[in-house]
Amino acid sequence: MSKLRLAGVIKESIVDGPGIRFVVFGQGCPHRCPGCQNPQTHDFSGGYDTTTERLLAEIRKNPMLKGITLSGGDPFVQPEAMAELAEEALKALGVEKKDAVFVGDSEVDVQTGLNAGLDVIAVSWGFRSREVVIEAGAKMIADDASELEKLILE
C-alpha cells in the first residue's frame, strides 16, 4: 500500500458528489487558483501522513458509502497513491469502473481521466478555460454546479 500526505478526510459527506461519500483532501498544490476553496491545502509540508491501507479500512467500515471524492490541494501531485486509492475504493464499494466518473478543471485532469478509462466531465469555472479542456478531449463540460450534478446523475 502507498503513503499519502493529506490535509484531512470527511468520512461522510453529502455535498461532494451523489450519495454519501468519503472525501480525501490531498495536501499540496502548486496552482494557487484565485478563489481556491481550500488554500490551507497548498503547503506541501502541511497536513499529515497516512496510507491507502488505513483509508481503505475506514471506507470498508461504512456500508452506506456510495463513492469517494479526491479533492485537495491537488490530488495529482500524488498520482500513484491517489490512483491506487481510487481503484481499491471502487472495488471496496462494489462500484464498477464504467459507473465511475472523473471531474476536473484542467487538461491534465481530462487526460488523467481518459487515460484511466473513465468518463470525464470538465468544469469550465476552474483552473483552465472551456477551450483548453475541449482541446484536451473533454466531451462533457459543466458550466455550473447544477449542470455538473445533472451530468453526473445521467
Describe this structure in words.
With 154 residues, this protein is an alpha/beta fold. The protein is 32% helix and 25% strand. It has five helices and seven strands. The strands form two sheets. Strands 3-1-2-4 form a four-stranded mixed sheet. Helix 3 links the parallel strand 5 and strand 6. The longest helix is centred in the middle third of the chain and has 15 residues. The radius of gyration is 15 Å and the shape is globular.
What is the spatial order of strands in the main beta sheet? 3-1-2-4
- Low-confidence parts: none
Helical segment count: 5
Structural class: alpha/beta
Task: Work out the helicity level.
Answer: 25-40%
The rounded Rg comes to: 15 Å
End-to-end CA span? 33 Å
Largest beta-sheet details: 4 strands, mixed
Order of helices and strands: EEEHEHEHEHEH
Chain-averaged pLDDT = 91
The fraction of residues in strands falls at: 15-25%
What is the oligomeric state here? single chain
Number of strands: 7
Shape summary: globular
In short:
The protein is an alpha/beta fold and 154 residues long.
Q: What is this structure's SSE topology?
A:
Elements: E1 3-13, E2 21-26, E3 48-51, H1 52-61, E4 67-71, H2 79-93, E5 101-104, H3 107-115, E6 119-123, H4 130-135, E7 140-142, H5 145-153
Parallel strand pairs: 2-4, 5-6, 6-7
Antiparallel strand pairs: 1-2, 1-3
Helix pairs in contact: 1-2
Characteristics of this structure?
four-stranded mixed sheet, 7 strands, three-stranded parallel sheet, 5 helices, alpha/beta, 154 residues
